[in-house]
Write a structure and sequence with these properties.
- This protein is of the alpha/beta class.
- Helix content is 33%, strand content 21%.
- The chain has 13 helices and 16 strands.
- Helix 2 links the parallel strand 7 and strand 8.
């Protein structure tokens, strides 16, 4: 069945299951509002009115907004009648953020994902998706091959040429900045819920997360006073093939504080390349090594072969532990449990 609506001397025949895209770039806000009422209740239930990416002579079009690319078919737009038929493409999201990908699974929106970056390995189910490579060394061809309707990222991807190449072929990109505080991380989850039609699920997850944080603060209050062990967090940077020390001011640093410890690196922001001199100055009581770097050695005993490590209090007392970067380098609903895990390692 088709519905007809006269708008600005046009007659638009709208399929009952169609998403009207093709003529939107030329319609007034009032006309679009009228059309919205017509298509409400279809399988898409919304009107896409973003930028027109391309229009062919046969009336095929790609209209994009921040949520993705939507295809429309019809006779040429110069004609008086525009009929949309096969419209609406299921979301195909390529996402290159560990935190964002974990959150997408948390809210039950994982069905939109078609590919991930190499470091997105939590939850385990995501590893069934194809990997397009390391997020700092991507190729536009690998992304394009997945036929994405949206390239989702947190701003931490490269090389820079990829951005321009994706723009050239008309793939929409959405950058959602990582949540570097618990509050901003929770806002990120709520934003993803809105993005993918899972707002209620996101609200539920965030509510439970907030309760978990309150319980954590009550549990860890006992570590607020007394001696705090110095902790060196070592992360292996795959783009530079080198070990990096996590500085203060980020999620890992905050989790250490809640767990009753302090960062052995007293500078703020980002990471520092590790040298034997840096390790000696840090003099950590405990070393936490993220999984890729720890696994290169295979054991805590072998890890002490890294220059400078064996001479530290952590090396002498065999207090070198493996932890995943997905646990430590960003906030998530797992943060309360991860912080308790840290406290157990640090205060046993």
């Amino acid at each position: 069945m088709h519905l007809q609506l006269s708008v600005s001397s046009r007659v638009l025949a709208i399929g009952a299951s169609a998403l009207l895209c093709l003529p939107l770039v030329n319609l007034s806000a009032q006309a679009q509002s009228s059309l919205r009422a017509v298509i409400t209740g279809t399988e898409h239930g919304e009107l896409v009115s973003g930028a027109c990416v391309s229009v062919g002579a046969d009336g095929c079009a790609a209209v994009s907004d921040e949520r993705g690319v939507y295809l429309a078919r019809g006779i040429p737009t110069g004609q008086a009648i525009v009929t949309t038929t096969a419209i609406g493409q299921a979301p195909r999201v390529v996402s290159v953020s560990k935190q964002i990908n974990e959150f997408i699974y948390d809210i039950g929106a994982e069905g939109v994902l078609v590919a991930r970056d190499l470091t997105s390995i939590y939850p385990a189910a995501i590893t069934k998706l194809p990997s397009i490579g390391y997020h700092r060394a991507l190729s536009a061809e690998g992304i394009i091959s997945m036929r994405p309707t949206l390239f989702l990222n947190d701003g931490n991807f490269g090389p820079a040429a990829v951005t321009e190449q994706l723009r050239t072929v008309g793939i929409p990109m959405l950058t959602l900045l990582p949540g570097n505080t618990v509050d901003s991380a929770q806002e990120l989850m709520l934003r993803l819920g809105e993005q993918f039609g899972r707002a209620a699920a996101a609200n539920s997850v965030v509510a439970a997360w907030r309760k978990g944080m309150q319980a954590l603060f009550a549990d860890t209050a006992k570590w607020a006073h007394g001696k705090r062990p110095r902790v060196l967090i070592l992360h292996f940077g795959q783009i530079g093939n080198s070990y990096l020390a996590v500085k203060g001011g980020g999620p890992a640093d905050q989790m250490l504080h809640w767990a009753g410890a302090e960062n052995a690196i007293d500078s703020i922001g980002g990471m520092s390349r590790v040298t034997p001199e840096l390790i000696a100055r840090a003099a950590p009581d405990v070393i936490l090594a993220t999984e890729v770097g720890f696994d290169r050695f295979g054991s805590a005993a072998k890890f002490k072969e890294m220059p400078g490590v064996a001479l530290t209090p952590a090396g002498r007392n065999n207090r070198i532990y493996r932890i995943t970067e997905q646990e430590l380098l960003y906030f998530s609903p797992r943060t309360p449990d991860v912080t308790r895990k840290l406290a157990g390692l640090l205060h046993h």
